[in-house]
Amino acid sequence: MAEIAYWEAIRRAHDEEMAHDPLVIAMGEDIGVAGGTYKATSGLYQKYGSERIIDTPISENSYTGIGIGASMAGVRPIIEIMSINFALLALDTLINAAAKIRYMSGGRVSCPIVMRTPGGTAHQLAAQHSARLARMFMSTAGLRVVTPRGPLDAYGMLKSAVRCNDPVIIIEHESMYNMRGEVPDHEVFRPLEGAEVVRTGSDITLVGYNYSVHLCLAAAEKLASMGVSAEVIDLRALKPIDRDTIRRSVEKTHKVVVAEEDEAAVGVGAEIISVINEECFFALDAQPVRVHAADVPVPYARQLEKAAIPNADDVLAAALKVLGRV
Amino acid sequence: MNRDLLRSLVYDMLLARTFEERAAQEYANGRISGFLHLYPGEEAVAVGVLHAAEPADYVVSTYREHVHALARGISARQIMAELFGKKDGVSGGMGGSMHIFDGTRRFMGGYAIVGETFPIALGVGYAIAYRGLPEAVICFFGDGAVNQGTFHESLNMAALWRIPILFVCENNHYQIGTEIHRHSAVADIHKRACGYAIPAEKIDGMDVLAVYEAARRALDAIRNEGGPRFLEFETYRFRGHSMADPGAYRPAAELQAYLHDDPVDSVIRAAETADPTPGKQAPIRAQGSPPSPFRGPAWESLTAPDIESLRAEAAAVVDDAVRFAEASPAPTMEDAWHAFRRNRMPDGPSAP
């Protein structure tokens, strides 16, 4: 068991899947000769060549479409979009084509692409490089959306995604590529569905995904010092949502906070609270609360950025409010 | 052999026209709904190009793709049933008129987002090139599609990576209701391919023999020399954009002139005479390409009774297709879920 960085985990998954199957290719801007903006494909161009590690022009919609077409003809492409903000350019091929081709073809043609892209705020990247957008993709029938919170899932979910016959979107995070975590030395596949209880507790449920899981864990730590036992759920997959794990936890704790880095409207928190309403409304002892970003484009100025994006203290404050301790 | 090819071209032209006119009737009868885009007037392009293609070549088409599917050998029954939204349709009734798919015939879909087909076809071409196969992908699109960003993005990458793709522009001069000089700064569409160093030519798209020869030359070049080729076919649709569009924006004289040049009538006239293209300039043949199958000693014409029997056969096939579509059951929600979820492998292999 070695401790490796998030980017190294992604790189290892690429390497293993490309070695395993000659039909696996990767494509994106600067992923080859330059080694990738986040080093997720570093060294692979030298190992697998320019036909398998493809440096693309800045044409997001079309190279995503190329991945889609190639996947329909048997190739398994991993498409890297340098920033989720740029994935907006690929919404047509992703949503109008990839998500719908199996259905439109009556189940006869599949489109097994993987799209990897970092969302989230980092350090003053300003309004056009700080979008999160998970809520946009999770609303589309026909896509899978997963959000690895650390190196193990970043590695094991990418491997599963490459072998999955559905289009899979993997949302990484600008601030997480250097996060370290243990990944077994042997090959591991992590499921593309199913939430995970990452900390058990009995007084309140904190729900997060991707980066916001870490905010929940930090808040849970502080709650523990105050004598509150918080359970933390990592959603792992935003599509499909694991309703059972959420229901079981809320039936135990009767209180819930959902933390998301995105704006609230039509978002992850809205969806999770709807799921709770449908699954176990009468188990609630208090109103559920969402922790989310301010409803503004992400500011550039350091203090404003900090104020606009939720942190662990915001999750803590929300938990105390739900607990009636404010 | 050549006579067989000619017979096949004539038959497919007749089948295409008969199928589409019948689809219009069935739409009026209320048995086909949604958007229905018909192909009369443009038959020579799909029929000519797809006769020149090999069975292993892939096709990516638009929302006006019934005739491409027919010319690819998908049965009239399966296509009509799809238009009727029935379970035995080629896409199980899930796609409809605009979304015909048949992986077994390498027909990789009809798409209703204009310009979306360029990158998808290019990706299919990438898969071919990556495996080093002697195949090609044929990408059909209209003149209205060439002002999408994907057109330029895709031409760039096709040339950059030498993808075995044949771009086939069906230039019917109208982007729905907007005439080409009102939507394109450069109306000679094939000239745009020069910007990406892709060999391109403009061909009379009302002449199925000229279309066939041009497509064959281009596909030969793709297979022998590699890289993309671009053909612009000048054609015309005799109907409106869809059944919802009477096409009133077009001058009557313009429509009359094209109706006079009806590609189905033209190929029949040509087939009945010794010279297949009387009064027409033979397309310039690329150096080193094989001789035309329509010229030389092997040429034989078809007789009037031959044509009548082909016409009757096409009519019978379309009648049968309508009966088949009518009899086919409607798909259920269970069928829909099955189509949507088929092939899913949600969790990947389990951890060791």
Short description:
With 326 residues, chain A is α/β, with parallel strands linked by helices.
Radius of gyration of chain A: 20 Å
Oligomer: heterodimer
Report how far the terminal alpha carbons of chain A are from each other.
43 Å
State the name of the first-level CATH class of chain B. Answer: Alpha Beta
Strand count, sense and barrel status of the largest sheet of chain B are:
6 strands, parallel
- The order of strands across the largest sheet of chain A is 3-2-4-5-7-6-12
Strand order of the largest sheet of chain B: 2-1-3-4-8-7
Reading the helices and strands of chain B in chain order gives HHEHHEHEHEEEHHEHEHHHH
Query: Which bin fits the share of residues in helices of chain A?
Result: 25-40%
Number of helices, counting only DSSP H or I runs of 4 residues or more of chain B = 13
Would you count the extended β strands of chain A for me? Answer: 14
Shape of chain A: globular
- Whole-Å distance between the termini of chain B? 59 Å
Helix content of chain B: 40-55%
Whole-number average pLDDT of chain B?
Answer: 91
CATH fold annotation of chain B: Rossmann fold
Instruction: Please tell me the total number of domains of chain B.
Output: 1
Count all strands of chain B and give the number. Answer: 8
Topology:
The complex is a heterodimer of chains A (326) and B (352).
Chain A (H helix, E strand, L loop, with lengths): L1 E4 H15 L3 E5 L15 H5 L4 E3 L4 H13 L3 E5 L10 H8 L2 H4 L9 E6 L14 H4 L6 E3 L4 H13 L4 E6 L6 E4 L12 E4 L4 E5 L2 H15 L4 E5 L2 E3 L3 H11 L2 E8 L4 H13 L8 E5 L8 H7 L3 H11 L4
Parallel strand pairs in A: 2-3, 2-4, 4-5, 5-7, 6-7, 10-11, 10-13, 13-14
Antiparallel strand pairs in A: 1-8, 6-12, 9-11
Helix pairs in contact in A: 1-7, 3-4, 8-12, 9-10
Chain B lengths: L1 H27 L14 H10 L5 E4 L4 H6 L4 H8 L23 E4 L6 H15 L5 E6 L6 H12 L4 E7 L2 E2 L2 E2 H4 L6 H5 L5 E5 L3 H18 L3 E6 L17 H9 L2 H9 L32 H24 L5 H9 L11
Parallel strand pairs in B: 1-2, 1-3, 3-4, 4-8, 7-8
Antiparallel strand pairs in B: 5-6
